[in-house]
Design goal:
The protein is built from ten helices and eleven strands. With 266 residues, the chain is α/β, with parallel strands linked by helices. Mean pLDDT is 93; it is low at 256-266. Bound molecules: adenosine-5'-diphosphate and magnesium ion.
Length: 266
Amino acid sequence: MIRIRHLSKSFGHNHVLKGIDFDVFPSEVVVVIGPSGSGKSTLLRCCNGLEIAQAGTIDICGERLLDEGDMMPEQKLNRLRTQVGMVFQSFNLFPHLSVLDNVTVGPRTLSGLSTDQAQSRAMLLLDKVGLSDKVHAMPASLSGGQKQRVAIARALAMEPRVMLFDEPTSALDPELVGEVLNVMKLLAQEGMTMMVVTHEMGFAREVADRVAVMDQGNIIEIDTPGVIFSHPKEPRTREFLHAVLNPSANTFTPSHSIQSITGSRP
Ligand code: ADP
Ligand code: MG
């Protein structure tokens, strides 16, 4: 479904992706983990043409998106993007449109569906993500977890063949994370091909077919969750997992939290 070879991307002098080779097979769920700044978002954004890498190839659903730095023509790119759904940390809903309109606008304007067709599709999807009762709500009245579920329904309304998730639960209050992960798990069980950047290690362990570990622009290790979480080969993987799974063991303590512990701040 996704085939990446020798992908190399720089922002100015900052070499962000250093020759990535990566595959996602049909119905596979690949979770991408790694420290902040390692290139996870950039890799994901390259997969739907939001970023252009200077070298390497990307094939998506059998079509060549990137050929040694050359992007496919705009018209083809727009068509391909309808097959690659993307969900961002920050939801990116249209604030002036109701939940229903957020989910129908793509199919109406890009896929040529009638309003009736788009609405019946949207109702099914909103039911699936547990938001049948919020059809006429405006985004501002929703919780973060509800907004993210609308964003997932909106992406699914284009009937994508692959879904890309970039830290979909990182902006959520902890008690709302589960409702979004449950929807993603349901999608995985239905056979959706998914590439998920997340720090939710429980999700990775339970739902991922493979876990890719990124560090400084490279995929340093990719294997089943069993191997990555129990017997990682790379010392950097061990360090990263240790830091994520034992946040209180981190040596870095922000000064404001010391102040709040000692009571010098409200
Ligand atoms: P991650 O998602 O793993 O935290 P990113 O892919 O966002 O990492 O970023 C990787 C590196 O690329 C970082 O050094 C970041 O500052 C840089 N970077 C990301 N996007 C841009 C951009 N649009 N312009 C310049 N530098 C960027
Ligand atoms: Mg990121």
